[in-house]
Structures are given as structure tokens and as C-alpha cells.
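Minutes, project check-in
Item: structure for the 751-residue chain
Input as provided by the requester:
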Amino acid sequence: MIQRILRRVEWIEGGRGGVRGIKMDDENVAARFVDVDARKWESKFISIGNRQYKNVNVSVYASTSLDMESSVAISSGLTLIIIGYGLLLVYIMMMLGKFSLVEHKFYVSLGGVLMVAMTCIVSVGICAIGGFVYSVLNSILPFLLLGIGVDDMFVIVQAWDNLTADEKAKPVHEKSALALKHAGVSITVTSVTDMIAFAVGATTILPGLRSFCVYCGIGICFLFIFNILFFASLLVLDARRIESKHDACICCYRHGDDYQSPECAGRYRLQEFFEGIYAKVLIKLPVKVFIVVLTAVLFGFGLWGTLKIEQKFDFLKFVPLDSYVTTFFDVREKFFPARGRHSAIYLSDVRIFEERSAITKLYADARNNTYIDPLSFSNWYEEYESWLQYSKANDSGFDESMKWPINEEIFLIWVHEFLENSTIGAQYQTDVVFDEKTSKYISSRIRFKHIVLSDSSDKVKAMDTIQNLVDEAEFRFDNDAFAFSKPYFYYETNKIIKKELWRNLGLASICVLLVILLLLANGNACVLVFFSVVLTLVDVAGFIHHWGLSIDTVVTVMLIVSIGIAVDYSAHIGHTFMTVTGTKNERTCKTLGNIGPAVFNGGFSTFLVFILLSLSNSYIYQVFFKVFLLVVMFGLFHGLVLLPVLLSWIGPSPFPEYREPTDPLSKENEKQCGNKAGVDNGVTHVEVCPPHAEYHEPTDLLSKEKEKQYDTEAGVDNVAFDGEICPPKANGEADGNVFDNQNNAETKTVR
């Protein structure tokens, strides 16, 4: 038994005075002698192996080591997560409200973070009921929901702050309706596009990715619901508290009616910066040209990296560098370097007595495979044939012409004898499986090793070629033959993950484009927003290659997540631009002033959550930090820098309901209406005079008669007009009683 366990011993050069290393890895021994409660046994085994021994360095590894150490790495990041949440909470408190005893939004900030926690609980609960597995990848779910949820929170609060003085004087419920009227579309666009992106990701054939996308999709759905119901209600309650001048922290205490917030507390410095300084610099022509050139350079580097990114999976990335698992594989590579991966052809439900020719041909084809070491085969079937030649040649049950037993019953009896009583056959006992009660044959295997392969594509080809050989074997009867090796799990993932990545990104991008077009209802704005999202994705994918990452399951998940995050930064800017009026440069400045602070706060708050993860030794957290850092950087760049520049050049006109009378389209409509009424209705050619006092009472018959007389003199039968259309003066100037269109006077003209 000791000889079987100590399968390889390397002696010190020059003699046998000592042992450099002993490798104990016999999987067959483990399979036979491990207790039923394997996990407890392996835990004890690992504990013994990790002890400190005098004059001996022991490195240990068990089948559960990888999962256990990965879980430890994930758990070790909980402290960083808690600190990150604390930093985010402080930042939200600073940015959502004002530095005032009354107008500070302490409980609103707490409620916002609580809302994200509620969303995580609901998402995990519903998915657990639905039977979806919670994997280590799902540990980043709170970060994702926090980033998207906080971004929507800032947008809603910014909509409250952007209300005009007249709107702020209205009742609280009307102010809430007006705020949600502006913010509702923005957060609907981003939430729906995020849900669609993850719904597409859930169609993948990768189980881990599918489960993660389902968790995220359900989480974002409820996050949207909680934002428009729970968080919006918190803002209403907080607004009523402010009106009654109750303290922001001690709500039961009410300040006096003469309390006034400090003047500095009422200033929105970030909004002043975006609209008063940043926007004015951004709309200058040299700056615009520089931004476009910089974008082209970044896109070039990003596209280059995207085309060069490699597909590589290394399971050791998922364990910490200081783990005993890492030490074990380092020692194994140093003293017992790999000679190729073990694999086997399994002959389950194969009639091995009758399928002799097919099995022999399969074995010969496998030996000629370029990805298999021909000297590594361990074939019990071939050894059994040789054993028959010198052990059973003179037996009556042996067919001399066929060199084979005369029937299946004798064949199986001799197989048992070969495995149990012969020296050669003893080593193949674990390669053949019989039913313990009936001694009926169940399955067997032919073992071999692949040659040393370093490239992922070669590993996939090696797996595919041997599987194709088995599939194409000329068996006469139905069977369940297949090739298998533990590394094939990783090879299968490498085989499809790159294709799945581009498929999911492509389908998700198309869906995002359609949703943006549907909700923004403007083709030009949709194209510009989608263009910014695409640039962000290309740059992120390219720069993760420059940062040393390759395509694996974690990176694939992060890239799909980045679609939803990238949409948020651009969609808010594009929608707000459609709701402001003026020249394109003026609308760009207003857009940055109105929504720029919210977009920046959303991005920076996301950055605060994961910045501490850079200190983690977990590969998942490291990838999360790198990808999200790139997403935030490029997302904010394309959303707050490039997109405003493009909008200032080729941005669309505002929505019809937001156009002012001075808008060129409104002027054209006004001119057309004036011409049909017989009046040259230009901006400076028509004067709208205030109604005379006697016309204020619509029920006065004399007033109506006089109004009709004025209308007749003006050449317009305008029975619905309460004022007077005066003929233009010779110099084209209006007198002091004229309402100027540019001062928001409303002219009603009825044909």
C-alpha cells in the first residue's frame, strides 16, 4: 500500500542519502479509503498537512481546497465592504442635502442605503425560491445595486433641487409630482435598459453567468420600484419636515419660525461649478476639438486592446497568493513539473465482448492523436488480450482463431481473474467497474495523458479531438462512451466563453439601442447616447487587456455589468438635453448644470464603494475593482465630456412640450398661424396689447361688443382673445404696454 501511495520519489543528486520530495496524489486510494463524510475528512487532512513539522516542509491539497480557499478570500473582503458602505453613506449625506440643521437629509440618506439592502434581500429571496444557485460571483450583487440605486437617488433629488421658485412654492405633493415628471423618464430609461441587458445575459448557456444575470435583473427591477415608491415617499416626508422646521436629526425638536439657514448652506457649489465654469470652458471650440481628438486616441488604444485580449482561465487566480493552495502548486511545479493532464476514455454501457474491433480501433486512433502522449496509455483491454495469449491459450473456452473467449460469460469470468489474481491485472482494478451483487460489467476506462499544453486554444483542440474520436467510433450497439478529464471543465468554459461574451454584449447592445429609442423618442438623441455607450464598452474591454486581465468567467460577468453602468451616465445627459431650450451651446450648459452634478455624484459614489477592494487579495474583488474603475472613468468621460460636445454640435431640438415661443420651430408655427389669420405674426411685427379695463368681465355684453369691434378693426375675428392686436408702429418698436414674447408672455391666437 505504501508503495502505491508514494507514487513518485525524487532522490538527491549523487546518491540516496535523502529525499527531496514525496508526491502523494493517488486518487484511487482516496476514492477507496475516504469516509462517507468526505468534507470533514479532508478538512482534518488539510489541518494535519498545514502543521509545522521539524525538518520537513509539507504542502497539502485536497479536492475541496479550491472552494474553501475561494470562500475564505470572498469572506475576507467583508470588512472592506463595510468600510466602503460607510464612506458611501457619509458622501451621500454630504451631497444630498444642505449643511443646515433643518435642510440636511440625514434620514433620507439612511433610507436610500436601506432601500438597496432591501432590494438585495428581495432579489436573493425570489431567486432562491426559483431555484437559482447563489455562487461566489453573486457576492458583487450589493455593489452593483448600490451603484445603480445611488445614481437614481441623486437624479431624483437633483430634480427636486431644479424646481423653479414658483414650483417650490407649491404643495409638497405637487412638487413631488413635478420632480418625478423630470427624473422619472431618466431613471426609467436606465432601469429598463439595465433589466434588458441582464435578461439577455440570462439566456447564456453558462450556468454561473445565467444565475448572476437573473439575480441582477430581478434586483434592478425592484430597485426601480423602491426608488419611485419608497425613496420618493421619503423625500415627501422630508419636505414636510423641512416646511415645519423640524430638526434634521432630532425630528421631534422644532426650530422657531424665525430660524434661517446659513447663506452658505443654500448654495449648490457643484452645480455652480458645472454650469458656471465647467460648461463654459467645454463649449469653447478649441476645447471641443481637443476632446474629440482625445476620444479618438482612447478609442484607438481601446480597440487595439479589445482585438488583442486573450482567453485564459487559471483557477489559481481564485485563491489568495498567501494560501496553502498556492504554495502547494508552486512546490509541485518546482519538484514535480507537469507532464501533461491525465484523461481517460470511459466505456459505459458498451458491450465490450462484442465491440472488440471498435474498441481496438478507437485505442489505435487515440495513440496517433497529436495532443496525446502515446507512451502514457494505461489500457487494461490491451493487457487483457495479451494475458489471454499466454494464460488461456490452451483452455477450451479460448477461440484460437479469434484469440478471444468463445462467449461473453467466459469473457467476464476471465476478466475477474485477470484483475484479481494476476500481477499485471492488479494495477487495473480501479479501471473496471462491476455490479457488486451480480458481477455484471458496468463500465471501464482507458487512461492516458495529454502532452504539455500552454495555450487555451490548444487545450480546447486537444479536448475536442479526443471527444470526436469517441463520438465517431464504429460501435455496433448503443452505448454511452465518452472522454473526460477534470481540466475539461475549464476547457469547456474556455471553448464557449469568448463566443458567449461577444454574443451577450451584441444582443444586449441591440436591446439597449431599441429601448433608448423607444423611451427617448428621438433618433438623433438615441444614436448619440448609444454611441457614447459603445465607446465606453470598447475602451473598458481594451484597457482591461492593457491592465493584464484576460477573458474568463469573472471578466465576462463584469463586462456585461458594465453595459448597465455605462448607459446610466449617458442616458441622463441625453434626456435632460431634450428638456431644455435655447441655442445648442446654451442647452448644453443648462444640461450640465441641471443633471451634471447628479451624474458625477452617482459615478463618484460608485467609485467610493469599490476603491477599498483594491486592497483585497481576492481575484474576484480585484477584477471588480479594475473593471468598475474603468467603467466609471470612461463612462463619466463619455457622458459628461464627449456627449455634451456632440450635443452642442449636432444635438436634436427639444421635446415639443418643452419648446419656448422663441424656439425656431415655435416661431415658424406662430408665423403660419398668423398668416392664416391675416396678420404678419413675426416677433417684432406684432404687438400684444393688454386688455382694457372694460374687457375684464367676459359677461359684460358691452365689453364683448367692443372686443368684437377691435377684432374687426384688426382684420381678425378673434372671439376668444381677451386683449387687442394692435397694428405695428412705423419704427417696429413696441410701446410700454406691450408684452414681450421673450419675457414669457403667452399669445393666444385662434383661427
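Outcome recorded: The first helix runs from residue 2 to 5.
No further action items on this chain.
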